[in-house]
Write a structure and sequence with these properties.
Layout: E1 6-14, E2 17-26, H1 39-49, H2 54-68, H3 78-100, H4 107-115, H5 122-143, H6 161-168, H7 184-204, E3 210-215, E4 218-225, E5 228-237, E6 240-247, H8 249-253, H9 258-264, H10 272-286, E7 292-298
């Protein structure tokens, strides 16, 4: 079994401000297991290794491998991808955000929805959940999230695999940047928008956002997920994988402390307890896909 990894956030409270902020993201080198493998074998390993956003991971892997060999794109399980997106977003909206804001979670309603998510009437169940539970809960959460509303850009609009292909080929300097929410309120509103969009997509049987490009044995694919854009890139020579990279939103948001610092630097905090809550909310805003721990001390 491959470990999911661990994120450690270290900080101090000094003069009412968060200082000495640092992050340490440990990620298992899963993609090394793909080297020297045939594409079909890589897909089997992806299905076994990635349990979080499993549908999106497999879809991105399949699309990248197809593009690398110039194959016709494989069919996409659109409904399964929309339901997976809903599952991850509703988990955060109903189980994680309310306690972080001092409110009770809606665990019973979420568990009931989750139990029926593979049934044929999932679109109707989702609509009922949004109307009966999420709408009221979101109003309560937003009352605890100060700030002004800003336009929410759909995740599908951020799918841009071409710059990533240039990066993989060495034709571009620096890894392309992923969009990061400007505030906890913006992140929360973006999740609400994703849920509303996914629910409508289920009703309309809309294709799921997937994009890929390929050149000279290289293939890069991107898939929209609840956390942002997931990217898989591969190089294939003589029918075998020569290189493989996976970039998840967590890798970009926690490559250093800049994203967290942008969320925390303007806050004045009265106590170590306030600082801990602010850190937890900032981490939730960036939403790592690995377990995390916070090491905070009063300077």
């Amino acid at each position: 079994m491959v470990s999911a990894g661990l994120l450690t956030v270290r900080a101090a409270l000094s003069g009412g401000k968060i200082s000495d902020l640092s992050v340490d993201l440990l990620r298992p080198l899963v993609s090394q297991l793909f080297l020297g493998q045939a594409p079909d074998a890589v897909l089997q390993k992806v299905s076994l290794l990635y349990t979080l956003c499993a549908q999106a991971q497999r879809t991105a892997a399949q699309a990248a491998l197809d593009c690398a060999v110039g194959a016709v794109s494989s069919p996409v399980s659109d409904a399964a991808l929309w339901v997976e997106n809903l599952h991850e977003n509703l988990w955060r909206l109903m189980l994680d955000w309310p306690p972080a804001l001092g409110l009770p979670s809606a665990s019973q309603a979420f568990v009931a929805w989750r139990a029926g998510r593979n049934r044929g009437n999932i679109a109707a169940q989702t609509d009922a959940l949004l109307a009966d539970v999420v709408q009221e809960l979101s109003m309560q959460c937003l009352q605890q999230l100060p700030g002004t509303d800003a336009p929410v850009v759909p995740c599908a609009a951020n799918l841009q695999p071409a710059p990533w292909l240039a990066f993989c080929l060495g034709a571009a300097q620096g890894q392309p940047q992923l969009a990061i929410s400007a505030s906890p309120r913006a992140a929360y509103l973006a999740r609400l928008a994703q849920v509303a969009d996914a629910a409508q997509a289920l009703r309309a049987q809309r294709p799921y956002p997937v994009a890929c490009v390929g050149s000279g044995g290289w293939g890069v694919a991107q898939v929209a997920t609840a956390r942002g854009v997931l990217t898989h890139a591969t190089q294939i020579e003589a029918g075998r994988v020569k290189s493989y990279r996976v970039w998840a939103p967590t890798d970009a948001h926690f490559s250093d402390a800049r994203a967290l610092d942008a969320l925390l630097s303007q806050q004045t905090l009265a106590s170590i307890e306030d600082a801990r809550r602010a850190l937890d909310l900032a981490i939730l805003t960036l939403d790592p896909c690995v377990p995390f721990k916070v090491e905070l001390h009063d300077a």
